[in-house]
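Q: I have 271 residues here and want to know how they pack in 3D. Can you give me a structure?
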Amino acid sequence: MVHPRNIGIIAGSGVYPATFIAAARRSSPGVKLAVAAIQDETDPGLAGQVEALEWFRVAQLTKVLKFFRREGVTEAVMMGQIAPKNLFSMRPDLRVLMILARLKERNAETLFGSVADALAKEGITVLPATTFLDDHLPGPGHFCGPVFNKRQLADAEFGFRIAKQTSALDIGQSVVVRHGTVLAAEAFEGTNACIQRGGEMGHGKNVMLVKVSKPNQDFRFDVPVIGPLTIETCAAAGVSGITLEAHKTLLLEKAAVVELCAHHQIGIHAI
């Protein structure tokens, strides 16, 4: 007899958690889902899509673990965004304080990595945040919008190489390039601000966004994402091409992305 899977979701903001829930329902019949919702972040509408939902502040790990145990959770995912202001103003419980005391570097990656490790120690398998979402991860080559020309393909390769180096240094995972020149590199300000700055530097013409994964990306909680807002930001900044890393970049609201790319004549290509 095959027992239904029982998955806990630590859910931040945005449509990512809802996308996962819908994909889980399609891919794993009978799956039971319990959402640990983050105050001021998680969409309250998720309550009607899952078997259980409970609200927590950022860094209330002990309460989250009790909730998951009560709901019989054996696997978990972490997805959605947490605003930097909430990370920096969190009131950690004792378990998180002990985690923080052991960390040499305190950033989103080390914090969420430690949370994932704590879940694993409790017997909860932490799944990649791309679980059930293979059809949202473009393979290599042209994906949608206008096909890249020779100049754009050269910029794609150049930007990909640069972005791999900046991401390896934990600076950021996106760069904006034009004709072999780096116009902007993402840092703490995020992808959209990087796009806007790069578009201004390139005067909104023949500008390309390149987004990659880090060499040691932990896909349990950290996945490069492109969505409709990214496309709208690119259109406003004069970005005409977007290069992604194949099989490692998640397209949220894929149908809307394809439609917007066609409307704004923005090509998406994966390497």
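Q: Anything worth noting?
A: Residues 150-168 form the longest helix (19 residues). The longest strand covers residues 32-38.
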